UniProtKB/TrEMBL annotation:
One Pfam family named in its UniProt record: Aminotran_3
Obligatory cofactor(s): pyridoxal 5'-phosphate
CDD domains attached to this UniProt entry: OAT_like (cd00610)
InterPro entries membership: Aminotrans_3 (IPR005814), Aminotrans_3_PPA_site (IPR049704), Class-III_PLP-dep_AT (IPR050103), PyrdxlP-dep_Trfase (IPR015424), PyrdxlP-dep_Trfase_major (IPR015421), PyrdxlP-dep_Trfase_small (IPR015422)
Family: Belongs to the class-III pyridoxal-phosphate-dependent aminotransferase family.
Annotated protein name in UniProt: Acetylornithine aminotransferase
Length: 375
């Protein structure tokens, strides 16, 4: 049976990984500066991660959410301690799309409203409401288009005010650093005014931290650079270092009721073990400090390359913008220099999303290769 052909594939077959490197079926070593869409947070095959999963699967890999699972409580408490998001509740699921789907559903439950405000170049997932709130008509099927969503420009505070004052908006959903869209950010004033408008208009303020969360921005969450308190925070990619896990942090003002949310696999024992190993490693190895140190070094080196027209993003969620499309550049980095990087909907942007424990020496390898390709 052939695979459904929806992914354009590079001719590389990774079979193992260690730290910031993956190795293909020919034994070739690749420096991974993309982490499979920012998923690899603590490095491939980190010993804490492999140990936690191995020990857990040898005891119990899965049971449903109909029973007690102390690992879920432990994970929730650890997220609260490291993120500083005190008092929130946690709902566990399996992916970023599922996290955003549940976030939007909660907002509609809480407010009794049905319209969503989202932003140009935003990406929130491929499920029903999440994809409707995504600014990409090519992935919105007619069945998704039934959702009531208004897409506005970033920094259009008058547009946000106008839409919220119509009284039917249940949620504003926003990435504080856009991922797929190309690392764009709004101003601090915009985020803070949107938050105030949500409060004034009985609208839930959803921070989509699926890609920017878990230390990638240089803080635990990217929204923490601003004076806002989201009603709902969606998380996923870096949470499990490759094991499928997502979650929604829910402000205590939103009351839980039996049956309002549910999932078969979300919060299973293996996922929680993976999630705890990631948080413990972030804490024990001071990885957020490393993010900020390496980010500063990366940006300083990037500024010395004249072909780079713009440096976007924060922390280790970075983009290098050129005055040409980067498709061929990425191929040369992969096939000639054995380095993985990422693209974006902005075809002139090279995305850099390495493990949070990447070193300056490994960044030097990248810039040496980049200069060779550019020159």
């Amino acid at each position: 049976m052939p695979l459904f052909d929806v992914y354009p594939l590079y001719n590389v077959t990774p079979v193992s990984g260690k730290g910031a490197y993956v190795y293909d079926d020919n034994g070739t070593e690749y420096l991974d500066l993309y982490g499979g869409h920012a998923v690899i947070s603590i490095g491939h095959a980190h010993p804490n991660y492999t140990k936690a999963i191995t020990e857990q699967v040898n005891k119990l890999g899965f049971y449903s959410n109909a029973i007690q699972n102390p690992l879920q409580v432990e994970l929730a408490n650890k997220i609260e301690a490291l993120s500083g998001c005190e008092g929130y509740n946690l709902f566990l699921c399996n992916s970023g799309a599922e996290a955003n789907e549940n976030a939007l559903k909660l907002a509609s439950f809480k407010t009794g409203k049905e319209r969503v405000v989202a932003f140009k170049n935003g990406f929130h997932g491929r499920t029903s409401a999440a994809v409707a709130a995504t600014d990409n008509k090519n992935i919105i099927a007619p069945i998704n288009a039934q959702q009531k969503v208004t897409i506005l420009e970033l920094n259009d505070i008058l547009g946000v005010k106008t839409e919220l004052e119509k009284g039917d908006v249940c949620a504003v959903i926003i990435e504080f650093i856009q991922g797929v869209g190309g690392l764009d950010q709004a101003t601090a004033d915009f985020y803070e005014q949107v938050f105030a408008l949500c409060k004034a208009n009985n609208t839930m303020f959803i921070a989509d931290e699926v890609q920017s969360g878990y230390g990638r921005s240089g803080k635990f969450f990217a929204f923490q650079y601003y004076n806002v308190t989201p009603d709902i925070i969606s998380i996923a990619k870096g949470m499990g270092n490759g094991f499928p896990i997502g979650g929604v942090l829910i402000h205590p003002d939103i009351e839980a009721k039996y049956g309002m949310l549910g999932t078969t696999f979300g919060g299973n024992h293996l996922a929680c073990a993976a999630g705890l190993s990631v948080l413990n490693t972030i804490e024990d190895e001071a990885l957020i400090d490393n993010v900020n140190e390496v980010s500063e070094y990366f940006i300083s080196e990037a500024k010395t390359i004249p072909q780079i027209k713009n440096i976007k993003g924060r922390g280790l969620m970075l983009g290098l913008e050129f005055d040409f499309e980067v498709g061929e550049l990425r191929k040369k980095l992969i096939y000639e220099h054995h380095i993985f990087t990422g693209g974006a909907s902005n075809k002139k942007l090279l995305r850099i999303l390495p493990p949070l424990n990447i070193s300056k020496a490994q960044i030097d390898v990248f810039f040496k290769a980049l200069k060779a390709v550019l020159n």
